[in-house]
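Consider the tokenized backbone below.
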């Protein structure tokens, strides 16, 4: 994983990777494995956040409850655009579907 500190560094990395990928495709036929590897290299970027981030994985047993609580709380309080709440509802359904198909667990 490549850690980049600024949005500019991230965008420069992505632009460079995409240019390399385009050149690979233009200059020769590449195998599926080469294409996947090149795409992974482009996407293996994580910006370094200046603030704490708390990611919730879809397999986390508590994920649906946490997302539902977030939606309900902000709907009651107000201040969050309705589009964002609708997006969170879609995300909640995706997490529920994921857990039905793959199961859920206590985080590692």
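A designed sequence for it:
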């Amino acid at each position: 994983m490549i850690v980049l500190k600024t949005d500019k560094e991230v965008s420069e990395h992505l632009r460079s990777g995409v240019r390399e990928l385009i050149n690979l495709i233009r200059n020769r036929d590449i195998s599926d494995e080469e294409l996947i590897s090149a795409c992974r290299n482009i996407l293996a970027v994580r910006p370094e956040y200046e603030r704490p981030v708390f990611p919730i994985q879809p397999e986390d047993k508590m994920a649906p409850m946490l997302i539902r609580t977030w939606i309900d709380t902000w709907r009651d309080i107000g201040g969050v655009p309705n589009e964002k709440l609708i997006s969170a509802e879609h995300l909640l359904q995706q997490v529920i579907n994921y857990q039905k198909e793959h199961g859920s667990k206590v985080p590692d």
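The mean pLDDT is 83.
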